[in-house]
Every structure is written in C-alpha cells, then in structure tokens.
Specification:
This protein is about 55% helix and about 15% strand. The longest helix has about 55 residues. The protein folds into three domains: about 180 residues, no CATH class; about 100 residues, Beta-Lactamase (2-Layer Sandwich); about 220 residues, 2-Layer Sandwich (Heat Shock Protein 90), CATH 3.30.565.10. The two termini are about 80 Å apart. The protein has 16 helices and 14 strands. The strands form three sheets. It has a seven-stranded antiparallel β-sheet. The chain has a five-stranded mixed β-sheet with strand order 9-11-12-14-13, with helices on one face. It is an alpha+beta fold. Helix 1 runs antiparallel to helix 2. The chain is rod-shaped. The structure holds adenosine-5'-diphosphate. The site of adenosine-5'-diphosphate has 21 residues, from helix 13 and helix 16.
C-alpha cells in the first residue's frame, strides 16, 4: 500500500497523513465530478455545457482512470509527482472550462490542486498552480466567452475567492510546517543528546540501570551485565527479580521498595548481591528518582522512574575493614607495654627519692620496663617486616646459597639456644645448591621459626633440616617444645594470635611472627606446613624450587 511517503529534496515537508488526505481527495473528488458529469450527460441536471457528450465522456473516463491509478500506485519520484499534478491540472482545467464553468462550486477543487502542488513542490508548485488558474480564467473570459462582461465578473470573483482562500490556507500550513520543522530539529537534537548520554553510560565502568515507576528495567549498560555476570537482556524484567539483594544479616531487601520512598540521591554500601551459585558481592549503590523538567516546574512529587548505579566494592570494603581492625588491634597491643613501661619508670623516679629503696628493688623495676621496651621493639620489627612484605619492598629475587644460609642461621642462634640449655642442630642433605628468592623474605621466615622454636622449647633442642631432591628444596624447623594443639594450629597464622597455653603466656610475644611468615611464604610462592603434637614438639616446613 501507499505508505512510503518520500520527502523530496527542496520540496515541502509533509506528513504521511497529509499525503493520505491528498491521495483520497485525488480519488473521491474526481468521482464527485464524474457523477456530476454523468448527471449532465443524461440530462438529469440541466446546465449549459460547452462540450458535446463524447467530449464529456472522454474527460470523465480519463479522470476515472487517472484517479484510480493515482490511488493505488504510490508516487515513485519527483518527476512522477510532477506528471500526476500536470495531468490533474489539465483534467480539472478542461472540466472547469468545458463542463461546469469556472464560476461554479467546482472551482473550489482547484484549491486542492494548489495545496497538492505546494505540498510536493513548495512555493514554486503553488505559484505554477496559481498561474495556471489565472491563465484558465483569462482563456475563459477572452476566448471561450468572447469577453462577456457577466462571465468575466463571475470568473474574476471566483479567482479572487480562490486566491484569498489559497493564501490563507498556505500561510496556516506554512506556519504549521515551520513549527513541525522546529519540532523535528528539537527532536533530532534530543536524539543526539540521548546518543551522547548513552555512549557515556555504556562506557562507564559502573553498572547503570534505569527503571520505570513500576520497577521494570528500561535501560542498562554493558557494565551491568558484567557485574551481574549474565548475557541475558535485562529489559522488561523487574528490578527485584534481577537484583536479589540482602543486608548484612542475610535478610532479603527489596530495592524497589527502597526506591519508592527516595526523594533525593541515596548512596549506600551495606547491601550484598547474591549470585546463583551462592557467591556474594558487596555493592555500593547510588539511586535516585528521575524527575523530568515538567514535574519539576510543577513542584510535584511525581517522577519518571529511577536510576540505579552499582559498583562492586567487596574487595575495597574488606581491605578497608581489615585496615581499621588492624589499627585498632595494634593500638591496643601497643598500649599495654607502653603503660607498663611508663608506669614502672615513673615508679622508679619516685623510688629513687626514697631512702629505704635498695639497689636490687630499683634493678627489678628497671628490668620490667626494659622487657616491655624490648617487646615494643620486637613488635615494631614485626610490623615493619609486615609492611615491607605488603608493599612488596625487597622482593627482588637472587640466588641464595643454601648451605651458607643454613650455617649463618645456625651461628646466629646457637648462643640463644645454648643459653636455654637447648641444642641447635643442622641436618642438611649432602647435595645442596641454591634457591632463587628474596633473601630478606627467606631469612625472615626461617628466623621466625627458629626463634619461636627456641622460645617454645623447654628441653631437648631445635633442628634446622634442609633437603634437596627432584628440583625442590625442602626447609623445615623441628623442635621438641611445648607443641601446638589442633585447635591452635588453625589459628596461629592469624594476626596477634597467641595460644592461651600458660607456657606460651610465660614468654613475651606479639602474635605477629607467624602472620608475617605466612605473608612472606605467599610472596615467595609457597605455603607453610605445620605438624605438631602437644607436649612433643612442632615442625614448620615449606618448599622452594631449586635455582636453575
Ligand atoms: P608470638 O611467638 O610472638 O606469640 P607467632 O605468630 O610467632 O607469635 O606465633 C603465634 C603462636 O603460635 C604463639 O603464640 C605460640 O602459641 C604458637 N607457636 C608458634 N611457634 C611455636 C612453636 N615452635 N612451638 C609451639 N608453639 C608455637
């Protein structure tokens, strides 16, 4: 059917509706004229017409053919439109001239031809159609009726009426078309604006959803699919069906309900999104109602839906919380020795003023303060080792001669073992080459195990065992100490964890040593293994690949 209305370049802008009106007029008006012609033909209407019956029949017949053709075959091109208009003008001209006369109601149909010409060919079309009518009037007066004064008067009145109506019609149409053109421009600008916004939204790393007032998702970006780990379209789904959210107590939260009560922008990070496989991520959600300018001017509460921006903050939140907890634990751990040291030293100051205080009493007090300061120094050492490991400082690898390292450690700790009546032994395989690792990290780990073993062993000794086979170097520190219970074995790598065992509590310690060691092991690409039996001793071991 006729529905591909073209907009000719240089022509006027017309809507499919206007074109349809023209199309139907092109069929029905000729039918009215033909019927009138037939009535004249059969003398039912008696008017004086200046053409014989054959001529009348021919005009009507052609008109019928042309109007049917025009109704069913869409206009193909500019030339096609021009040809059709010329044919219509010729037919209408002959009809007015030979059948009805110009000063008849049928002259009004010329007006429609003018509109048609204007619609397809703008001002130029209108001008031509108007001139054609003036020409027709001139022919009618000058040649057809031999300058009859009466006919001339009638024709001129018809001409003036047609001209006035056509000018009025055209100016109304024109102003409407200008408005339409402006509207089209605004619409094009809006589309451009929309495209720009959509490009930005699509390139955002944050997930963006736009939902309507009923909670149905209308727009979403690629990042939302990534975040929700899906390829399915989200359009048309309810936001609560797509986003199954829970709070920290695992209770379900309906985002739609939350949205309905928001008045401004809300930002929160206390909700979790659960995937189908049970995994949960923590979301940072920003949502707000979308208000259009219309409702804003009305100052009403109504809006056009909601916009939701989401970000996965699981990692940053857990890091942040971990850091906060760490700072609070550290300040607590530091406070105790500082308070004891400070209290003891101010006591010593008071004691020194007192004549009854013996030298030994002062010495004891100073020793207590000294122990606490040593403890603080150890803690600071452990903390700086931890921070080095976390910042990745000193993790540049080098070839480390294992035998040399083993002897160095043995020499370093023999004294402190001997001081506790313990023997510190070396058990090395005959063939030991080297490992490629950060020297600082490896030494720090081994020292940690050795000092712990010496610290937590009352009798017997500690053995440094290093074996090499199949390209792997196996390090192990074995002691005959107090041992670690099964339940403690699960916790000793936690930061600040110290066993509740009274024998542990007899010794000073920060609870950071093994936590740091585990971090270092991770940096070195290995894992610490513990085997221990309460009261029988413990073994801490790990393996590293042999250097190439
Ligand atoms: P610290 O030794 O400063 O308390 P660590 O992190 O080095 O802290 O060790 C954590 C806990 O693990 C210790 O408090 C102790 O209870 C236990 N532990 C570590 N090494 C040994 C060991 N060789 N024998 C027995 N217990 C140990």
């Amino acid at each position: 059917m006729y529905n591909n209305h073209k907009m000719y370049k240089g022509g006027s802008i017309y809507s499919p509706r206007t074109a349809n009106v023209i199309r139907y007029s092109g069929l029905f008006i000729p039918i009215v004229l033909i019927t009138y012609g037939v009535l004249i033909q059969f003398d039912i209407i008696r008017i004086q017409h200046t053409i014989d019956n054959v001529g009348l029949f021919l005009i009507c017949f052609w008109w019928l053919l042309v109007s049917i053709f025009q109704f069913f075959i869409p206009i193909q091109s500019r030339i096609d439109a021009a040809l059709r208009l010329i044919t219509y003008h010729l037919l209408a001209g002959s009809y007015l001239l030979f059948v009805s006369g110009i000063a008849s109601p049928f002259a009004g149909f010329w007006l429609l031809l003018m509109i048609g010409s204007y619609v397809f060919f703008s001002e130029r079309g209108l001008q031509l159609s108007t001139f054609a009518f003036i020409f027709l009037v001139a022919v009618d007066i000058l040649f057809w009726h031999n300058i009859s004064a009466v006919i001339a008067a009638y024709d001129l009145v018809a001409l003036v009426v047609i001209l006035i109506i056509s000018i009025v019609t055209m100016s109304v149409t024109r102003s409407q078309e200008v408005t339409k053109e402006t509207l089209n421009q605004i619409k094009a600008q809006e589309l451009l604006q929309r495209d720009r916004v959509m490009t930005i939204v699509n390139n955002m790393t944050d997930a963006v959803l736009s939902v309507d007032t009923a909670g149905i998702i209308r727009v979403y970006n690629a990042a939302s699919l990534n975040l929700l780990d899906t390829n399915d379209s989200l359009n048309g789904h309810h936001v609560d069906e797509i986003l199954s959210l829970t709070n920290k107590d695992n209770a379900e939260v309906s985002l739609y309900k939350e949205l309905q009560v928001v008045k401004t922008v809300i930002k929160r990070d206390d909700l979790y999104y659960g995937f189908d496989d049970g995994e949960k991520i923590r979301l940072e959600l920003t949502y707000s109602p979308i208000r259009n300018s219309f409702s804003r001017t009305k100052k009403s509460e109504s809006h056009d839906g909601y916009i939701i921006i989401m970000r996965d903050v699981t990692k940053s939140k857990s890091l942040e919380e971990e850091r906060d907890e760490f700072i609070s634990v550290i300040s607590h751990e530091l406070r105790t020795p500082i308070t004891i040291a400070e209290g003891t030293i101010s006591n010593v100051q008071v004691m020194m003023e007192h004549p009854d205080i013996t030298h030994d009493m002062l010495k004891d007090a100073v020793n207590v303060a000294h122990d606490q300061i040593i403890f603080l120094a150890n803690m600071v050492n452990d903390l700086s080792a931890l921070s080095r490991a976390e910042r990745g400082v000193a993790d540049s690898a080098e070839d480390i001669d294992i035998k040399e390292l083993a002897h160095k450690l043995h020499d370093k700790y023999s004294e402190s073992a001997k001081a506790k009546d313990l023997h510190l032994d070396l058990d090395l395989s005959a063939k030991l080459t080297s490992v490629h690792a950060s020297r600082l990290y490896l030494e720090e780990m081994l020292q940690n195990f050795i000092t712990n073993s010496i610290k937590y062993t009352k009798k017997g000794g500690v053995k440094i065992i290093i074996k090499q086979s199949a390209g792997e170097v196996f390090f192990s520190i074995k002691d005959t100490g107090i041992g670690i219970s099964k339940s403690d074995q699960a916790k000793i790598f936690h930061k600040f964890y110290r066993s509740e065992d009274y024998r542990t509590r007899e010794t000073g310690g920060t609870g950071l040593g093994l936590y740091v060691a585990a971090k270092l092991a991770h940096k070195l690409g290995t894992k610490i293994d513990v085997t221990s039996r309460l009261n029988f001793g413990s073994t801490f071991s790990f393996t590293l690949p042999e250097a190439k």
